[in-house]
Specification:
The protein is of the alpha/beta class. It has helices spanning 39-48, 60-63, 68-77, 93-101, 111-114, 123-131, 144-154, 176-186, 211-221, 243-253, 256-271, and strands at residues 8-13, 51-57, 81-85, 104-110, 135-139, 158-161, 191-194, 226-228.
């Protein structure tokens, strides 16, 4: 069966609807043009590609800690979506519980954008997430993961890592940050999203230089601890990306049986669909 027709769960995408939910003036970057896409349009896109469910990630770009657009989409989806919110580092238990009641299953920590120092005080928040059995989702790059490891060794929170850990595409799989991610996989301490190739590939589509990183992650984590994600609508993409051609990349990387695990079973289990 073609990858386009196989049932899928998209584990990382965004909805942006500044007409109904204007961007706060305090957020520096305002996505525009083809970077935007609302929940109604994304539901149509999902139907075209047999995507049954999706994990909507609140973007630091555009919305920051304003989760109104995300929560509206979760309601509109009527079970199609779950969410990852962006919250203040001092977000209290009651606020997290309220988000959880509306379909939010975790919190995003975008260190690749904000840096580690911005998140240096999140250990109490991680403990609250652990208490509520919610995910801590990290987007790091290069060596940033190493900075988080001490606090993660103290808090046994469920952890997801975005976009293959965003390694430096020039330095190979031996670079320390990527090796620390592989160690988390061998210890079964995290789930990793095999996605975001455009964020670290030096070659561009079809991202042949991303393959060694993907293969190393699949080996160390096992596909049961890996999930697929589109990263739609490709915020700050350096060149045009489209959903269908991106899916074809995975058709070249994985067999039909492997794709069923990666694109359906793993996400269904970890994300609770």
């Amino acid at each position: 069966m073609s990858v386009l027709a196989e049932p899928k769960i998209d584990a990382h995408c965004h909805v942006l609807d500044p007409v109904r939910f204007p961007y706060p003036a305090s957020v520096a970057y305002h996505p525009a043009g083809q970077e935007m896409g609302n929940a109604s349009y994304f539901l149509q896109l999902m139907a075209c590609y047999q995507v049954q469910h999706a994990l909507l990630v609140g973007p630091n770009s555009g919305y920051g800690t304003d989760n109104r657009c995300l929560l509206d989409a979760l309601k509109l989806g009527q079970g199609a979506f779950k969410g990852i919110a962006v919250v203040p580092n001092d977000c209290d238990l009651d606020s997290l519980e309220q988000l959880k009641s509306q379909g939010v299953i975790g919190v995003a920590f975008n260190a690749a954008l904000m840096g580690f120092d911005f998140y240096a005080d999140i250990e109490p928040l991680l403990r609250r997430l652990q208490q509520l059995d919610m995910w801590a989702q990290f987007q790091v790059e290069n060596e940033l993961l190493l900075n988080f490891l001490p606090m993660l060794s103290r808090v046994d929170v469920k952890m997801m890592v975005d976009h293959c850990g965003r390694p430096d595409g020039m330095r190979g799989v031996s670079q320390p940050g990527f090796q620390s991610l592989l160690s988390l996989g061998r210890e079964q301490r995290a789930v990793v999203k095999l996605s975001g190739f455009a964020k670290f590939s030096q070659a561009g589509y079809p991202f042949v230089d991303a393959r060694p990183y993907v293969e190393a992650l699949a080996h160390s984590f096992g596909l049961s601890q890996c999930v697929w994600a589109s990263d739609w609508p490709y915020l700050k993409a350096p060149y045009r990306l489209d959903y269908g051609p991106m899916l074809r990349v995975y058709e070249q990387m994985f067999s039909s049986q492997e794709r069923h695990q990666l694109m359906w079973l793993s996400a269904k289990h970890h994300l609770g669909f």
